[in-house]
Amino acid sequence: MAPPDAHLRRASERRIERAIPDFATGAFLHAQARTELMRRLQPVQMSVQSILDLGGGPGLGARALVRQFPKAAVTLVDRSPSMLRAAARARGWWRKFECLEADATALPIADGSVDLVVASMLMPGLPHPEILLTEVRRVLKPRGYFVFTTLGAPSLRELSTAFASADAEVPHLNDLIDFHDLGDALTRAGFVAPVLDTDRLTVTYWTLNDACRDLRAGAAPLPTTVRRSLTGRARWRAAEEAFSQGRGSDGRIPVTCELVYGQAWAPDVQDVRRPGPTREVVVPLTTQIGRAHV
Question: How much is the pTM?
Answer without folding.
Answer: 0.79
